[in-house]
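Human: Respectfully, please carefully check these tokens:
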Amino acid sequence: MPNKSSAVSNVILKRGSLYLSCALYEKYFAGLDAVILLNRDGHLYILPVRNTSGGGYLLKLINISGDRVIIAPDFFREYRLDDFQQREINVYWDQDMAALKAEDIFNSTN
């Protein structure tokens, strides 16, 4: 069983983009410009990228409050999650993967 942090937060998935609050960004991705999105066993992992020359999706600033968006329609389209319906997704920090994790989003039918 992965080493799971007890703190659960939310991200919003809408139109192939993930929206992160400033608080969530500051807690796990402060100072970073990019992340890698990974589907592993039906779970979404959002991994920090320290060196953007290695690729990844940009964490774009979207407002003065410091909220961020990860625009990744190609990634979510591959798994048929690029629809226009807004979804609130629970995430937590998975210490074993050093990533934010959303469980079973690729296996769900909602």
User: Anything to note?
Assistant: Residues 22 and 66 are 5 Å apart (CA to CA). The longest helix spans residues 22-29.
